[in-house]
Amino acid sequence: MHPRQRLTRTLACLSLPLLLFACGEGPSADPYANGQSYPWEYRADGSVQPQTLGAGTNTLQYEPILYAKNGWGPAEKNRSNGEQAAGDGKPLTLNGKTYALGFGTHAGSELRFSLTGGSTVSCTRFTAAVGVDDEVGDRGSVVFQVYLDGVKAYDSGTMTGASLTKTVDLSVTGKKELRLVVTDAGNGISYDHADWADPRVYCDSTPPPVDTTTHHLEYVAVDRAIKVYDIDQGYTLVKTVPMPSMYGLRGIAANAVTDRLYIPYWGDRKDPKYAGQPTFGYLMAYDLKTDTVLWTRKYSPSIDSLSITPDGQKLYMGSGEEAGGDFWFVLDGPTGNEITRIPVYKNAHNTIVGASGKRVYMASISSNYLTVADTTTDKVTLKVGPFFTSGANSGLRPFTVNHAETLTFVNPDHFSGFEVGDLTTGKKLYSVPVQGFPWKDAAWPVTQSHGVALTPDEKEVWVLDSYNRYVHIFDVSGLPGVAPKQIADIDVRDPNDANNQPKWVNFTRDGKYAQISTGHIIEVATRKIVKKLDNTRYFLQVDVQGGEPVQAYSRHGVGYGGTAAP
To answer: pTM value?
Structure first.
C-alpha cells in the first residue's frame, strides 16, 4: 500500500462511531502467505466518557474502546479476526472451545480501555482466556501482553496454534488504563489470529469519598427552629431545622462524643390543659448527625441553663430561676433519666461543667455565692464569694471560668461590670466596674451587665452593657496579680431594633469572632461588626468532619488556656 493511501485510510477511521469495523481495501489473493501488512486503526471521539463500568462483573466488549489498531483488517467483536473485511470472522474458538464473547485480533494489535468507573466504583481484577484461534490450525505465533497504566503486567510468551489456552488473571486495583497488546513473536504476522476470549473486568462498590475538611458550624437555637451557620463561609446559613413545639428557650449544650445537642425550653406549659398541675419544663435531645429529635422529657418544677460533662454522660441543669427551684438536676446524658439532685439555693439558673469534667459550677439568681460540686460524688465542695449584693435575694447572672478552673468571672445583679473569684480559695479577688458609661440605677430590669466571656486565649474579658448597648473589653492577662483594665468599648446599638439589648456573648473556638445575643458578629482583631444573625442567647460551635461531629464547645464563653484550636 502506498504511504499516502494508508494515511488517508487511517484518518478516515478516526471519526467512526464506537463500533469496530474495517476501513478496508480490496482483499489480497494470499495475504498470509506473503506476510502482507494491513494495519487498521481507530481512535475514540474526544466526547466519549468511558464511565460505564459498574459494580460486579463487566464484560469488556460492552465497554467503550478508547483506541484500537489491528495488523490485518479490523479487530472484531465476538468473532475471530477473519480476513480484511469487517464481520468476516468465525466464532471465537480456542482448542475446540467456542466463546460467545471477546475480541478477534491479529498480531500488531492493541486495544485500550478505561478502568475508571463511576464515583462509587473501583475496579479490582481483569481476566481473559488467550490463544491463537483454531481457524489457522497449528500455525501462527504471537505474544499476548497486558499493560496497566503503561506498565507491562502480563506476558504470555510465544503461543502458536498448537498451544494450550492460557488464562490471564490480574489485579487492576488503583489502575486507570488497560491495554491489550498482541505482537508477532518476531517472525512476521502470517496466520497470527489472536483471540481475547471472555475478557472481564470486576469492580467493587466503594463509598463516596469522605470529606476530610473540618467544618466549623454555629448552631443557633431560636423559638421553633434550630439554625446552622458555616463560620468559615462568613456565617452562611447551611440549614434550618423546624421545631414547632420548641419555644421559650432556656439554654443549649452539645457533646461530640455522643453526637447530642440539648435544648431546655418552656414550650406549652402555660396551656390551659395543664391548669392545676405542677409546673414543669421540657428538655429535648437532638441527634447532630441525623437532625432528628431523639427524645423530649418533662421535669418539675422547671428547667433552666445546663452543661454537660466532656464524656457526654452527665447533664447538670438548674431547676428553674422562675419556678423557685432550689436544686440542680443530675441527669443521664444518653437517656435524660434523673440520677440525683444537688441542693443549692432557690432560683437555680446558670451552669458550667469545667474543662476537667471534675467540677460543676452553679449560680442562683437569689444567691451571691457561686456553688461548686464534685461530678464524681455530686456533692457540694466549695462556695465562692460573697460577690456584690444589692439587697436580699440578689444573686448571680451569667458567669464563666478559665480553662485551669482557678478563676471565675461573674455578673452580679444590678452591677455594671464584673467580679473575679478565686476557685481555689473561694475568695473574691476583684470588683471591676465599667468606667465612662452611664449607670442606670437598680430599677433597670434584671441587671445592667448581663453577659461575660473570656477570649479563648484568656487575655481579655468581654462584658455586655444592656442599658447602653455596648460591649466593654478588659485586659485580664495579668491575673491574678494584676487587676483587669478596661481597654475598649464597642457600640452595638441597632437603629433597626432599638429595644434589642445585648444579654449573652461567646467566641468562636479560634478566637476570631465574638457573637452576642443581638445577633452581631464582631471580628475580635479589628473590633468591627461584620455580620448580623439571629436575636438569641442560645448558640454554640460544633466542628464537623466527614459528617461526624468531632468537637463541641460551651455556650458560656469559657477560656481555653491559650491552647490552639483543634
So the answer is: 0.69
